[in-house]
Design brief:
The structure is a homodimer of 406-residue chains. Helices cover 31% and strands 20% of the residues of chain A. With 406 residues, chain A is of the alpha/beta class. In chain A, α6 crosses α7 and α8 crosses α10. Chains A, B: Keywords: Lyase. Chains A, B: It holds the Pfam family Ala_racemase_N.
């Protein structure tokens, strides 16, 4: 294949709808990634670093594994795009059998909708007049956009805005799990759901509940116990609504750490897995159902290539990839092939690697491949990721919702 | 002024050169920021959050203050663009009297050069064949591009690449201060400088030394002592080179925490201040020469607007601005007007604010204005910042080198 053919194919494959967005960018793949197309075919070891890479074989395996594991349980998959922020990957998730996707924020939802993802459930709430108006405009254009609400005033505001937009907006109620977002369970939750159900310009679809604190509990048994206990008040709210005759077609929540636990929750419809695609060091250390030492249901597919730029100090290597490449999350990134090295990305521009039980000696210019500490915020630092197959760049995946935290 | 006039003026003001870059993007302001032009004229309190804002009056005051303070000391200002990543701001720094700018990485340097900044000193080293080749191509095109080197093999590689490119490349030697980057001081430093000086395709300009660990030492006296002590071996290297008859026209280093201390270093030519423009909570707490409690030589101009999305839990507010908006840096962000509140951005999508000694009650939808924990990595999360004057958006400042960590 000639370079120009590669380039043409790339531009066709990644062309995105250019509709204007309140927050911009209506990024065209042509503008942003043209220059990096010349990297297609290169070895990942030859990329200018820091370079965000996803191993496509591993990611595709993860993509299937979650569906295989949940087959026959009655629980579906509604992947959370806050992890990858990449419409091209969202399309793979839909093709693999996802019932739709979740998005954290309105601007993130918009990037997905504008780029051809039809069913987007926004898990965060919109509380300002500006965002609510914009959400209703989006719903008017994209029928598969579902919004969350977690307080009565907000439900009234959504009703008013939907009416003003001349639509019936699809709504789920977010239930409190970890005292962060969500309406109080029990009677307050039921009343909010009933209000939404009766509001002429809102349609109630069910509930949402995210047990963020449970996802990283170490040890499957402890995690299972905590997850099910934490969800008891949520299940109670769900059952009150069901008894009241409300539409409970959606009972969504959970994540990569509890995807195989939520199947035990009565009425639960779908898990909001995100990290399962990429994995990261934070998830690897929590332990899985079948492997207490390492959570290995999914393979770590996401890495950052980092280059050694200085080896003149005893006991350490300095790299070109610091907090702006890997974030400050802990546990630190994990170097493939050097399990005991400690990769400290605490400095903005530089990584500092403590040499412990080395398998070889490294020179300035050599590269480390680093499993990321926490995938979501690392992805949010890059404009694109390199899709790697057999060690070579197969394609470039634009992270079009990067920075879309509004 | 009509909206369309604003928009036209904005497009004229922010138009950037669209030359292709190895890492892309050749972002055109038109493509990226058109949609946000409609925010010009809005109150900062009405912006969709998280929104990165810079108070222009404060930033302009800071821009002047560093020059005023250093007037007559013989020490110049070579601001580090890793802090703002914004060519428009680099131009303001040059206009205010900077001798040029520093950039941390090659891709960051390129964005500055391509967008009209003539004198760029890259403080990091390029050690791979790909980056060295690209650096020489840049130097061929932009005469004011200066590169750093910190080991002999790298100097040989630069010489070979400069020769292959048919140029004489301008080089400074990076000296070790905190065992991160830099050649060992004394004889090794001298030998490296002499090698560069004799290399037919390299021109030696002097030295560079960054005392990163000293910048945030609390208390001016302690900071001054440590800074001067840490710099002793650096000064020794500089004097060896001077004695050897080498060109020592550049002796660059320091930062916002030591800008008023480096004036005591013999031979020192310019400070690489970055944070002075924006300030942040990390710098505010170190104390200044004239105010031990707060480092207030410069005013905190950079803030993130965050919206309260949930107030249903006692003792805290939940906002829409977490680690993807403010990073995990400590000390936490500081809410203007609520000095005792603790803003924890530890969660990716949500901020959690502990209510301590409140001055008022806040409702869902109200906004906090948050002084950022650490300016550099926060800026690196946003595609643009809002330039605010008297509380209103005056202009949009594209952060064109965002994510340029290569």
């Amino acid at each position: 294949m000639s370079d120009s053919l590669n380039r043409r194919k790339f531009l066709q494959a990644t062309a995105v709808a250019g509709a204007a967005s309140l927050w911009s960018p209506s990024l065209s793949a042509e503008t942003l990634y043209e220059a990096n197309v010349s990297d297609i075919g290169k070895s990942k070891w030859d990329l200018d670093s820091p370079a965000l890479c996803v191993d496509l074989d591993k990611m595709e395996k993860n993509l299937k594994a979650v569906h295989t594991a949940l087959k026959g349980t009655g629980v579906g998959v509604r992947p959370h795009v806050k992890t990858h922020k990449c419409p091209a990957i969202a399309k793979m998730q839909i093709a693999a059998g996802a019932v739709g996707v979740c998005a954290a924020k309105l601007s993130e939802s918009e990037v997905m909708l504008v780029n051809g993802i039809q069913n987007v459930l926004m898990t965060g709430v919109n509380v300002t007049a500006s965002k609510i108006k914009h959400a209703m405009e989006l719903r008017k254009k994209y029928k598969g956009f579902i919004q969350a609400v977690d307080n009565m005033q907000n439900a009234r505001d959504l009703q008013d805005a939907a009416k003003a937009a001349g639509i019936v907006a699809d709504v789920v109620v977010d239930l409190d799990v970890i005292k962060r977002s969500g309406v109080r369970n029990g009677q307050p939750a039921l009343e909010l759901a009933q209000f939404v159900d009766k509001a002429p310009n809102l349609k109630f679809h069910g509930v949402l509940a995210y047990d963020g604190a449970v996802q990283h509990v170490e040890g499957f048994k402890a995690r299972r116990e905590q997850a099910l206990k934490t969800f008891e008040p949520v299940v109670n709210s769900y059952e009150l609504m069901k008894k009241a005759g409300l539409n409970t077609e959606i009972f969504s929540g959970g994540g990569t750490g509890t995807y195989d636990i939520m199947t035990e929750v009565p009425g639960f419809t779908d898990v909001q897995v995100g990290s399962y695609l990429f994995m990261d060091h934070q998830y690897m250390v929590i332990g899985g159902k079948n492997n207490e030492k390492e959570f290995d249901d999914f393979a770590p597919s996401l890495t950052v290539m980092a280059t050694i730029i200085n080896n003149s100090n005893e006991g350490k290597y300095v790299t070109d990839s610091g907090a702006k490449a890997l974030t400050l999350n802990v546990p630190h990134g994990k170097i493939i092939g050097e399990p005991d090295f400690d990769y400290n990305a605490g400095s903005d521009e530089y990584g500092s690697v403590k040499i412990i039980n080395p398998n070889k000696k490294y020179n300035v210019g050599d590269k480390f491949e680093v499993i990321v500490p926490h995938c979501d915020p690392v992805v949010n630092l890059y404009d694109f990721m390199y899709g790697i197959r057999n060690g070579k760049v197969e394609k470039i995946l634009p992270i079009l919702a990067r920075g879309k935290s509004q």
